[in-house]
Design a protein that fits this description.
This protein is mainly β. The protein has one domain: OB fold (Dihydrolipoamide Acetyltransferase, E2P). The protein contains no helices and seven strands.
C-alpha cells in the first residue's frame, strides 16, 4: 500500500523565521508514522501554504523558503 496523503500536524517554525538546511520545519503524519520534515535549503520561511490540521497529497506544496524580501511565485 502506497501512502498518497500526509497530515500536517504542527509547524515548528513561523513565517519569517530563519532556517538552516536540515533543520526541522514541520511535523507530518501518515497512517503509520509521524516525522519531522527538514528544511531542504537555508533561508527564511516566507509563507506557510497549508496550516495545521490539514491533509495534503504527498509531495504537495506546504510553504515557501527563500531569502528575506523574496517575492512569492504568482499563483
Amino acid at each position: 500500500m502506497n501512502t498518497t496523503k500526509v497530515n500536517v500536524v504542527k509547524w515548528l517554525k513561523n513565517e519569517g523565521d530563519p532556517l538552516k538546511q536540515g533543520e526541522p520545519v514541520v511535523e507530518l503524519e501518515t497512517e503509520k508514522v509521524s516525522y519531522e520534515l527538514d528544511a531542504p535549503v537555508e533561508g527564511v520561511l516566507l509563507k506557510i501554504m497549508v496550516r495545521e490540521p490539514a491533509e495534503v497529497e504527498v509531495g504537495g506544496l506546504l510553504g515557501y523558503i527563500g531569502k528575506p524580501g523574496d517575492a512569492l511565485p504568482a499563483s
